[in-house]
Amino acid sequence: SLYQLVKERIQGFPSFAITHIPREKNQRADSLASEILTSRVRL
């Protein structure tokens, strides 16, 4: 799962934090997320 993958990858960092930023405060990220979710491209 994505959660497990992230847990494994962050082990190598001395510290790690996730901060929620509302969509309306980060329009560029929201735009990129919407673009990939509506595209036919598989990552």
Automatic annotation (TrEMBL):
Molecular function as annotated in GO: nucleic acid binding; RNA-directed DNA polymerase activity; RNA-DNA hybrid ribonuclease activity
Which Pfam family, any one of them, does this sequence belong to?
A: RVT_3
Tell me the keywords, alphabetical order.
Nucleotidyltransferase, RNA-directed DNA polymerase, Transferase
On whether Ubl conjugation is a keyword of this UniProt record, the answer is: no
In terms of Gene3D superfamilies, this protein maps to: Ribonuclease H-like superfamily/Ribonuclease H
The source's superkingdom equals Bacteria
Domain RNase H type-1, first and last residues per copy: 2-35
Q: Does the keyword Disulfide bond apply?
A: no
What name does this protein carry?
Reverse transcriptase-like protein
Lineage here is: Bacteria, Pseudomonadati, Atribacterota, Atribacteria, Atribacterales
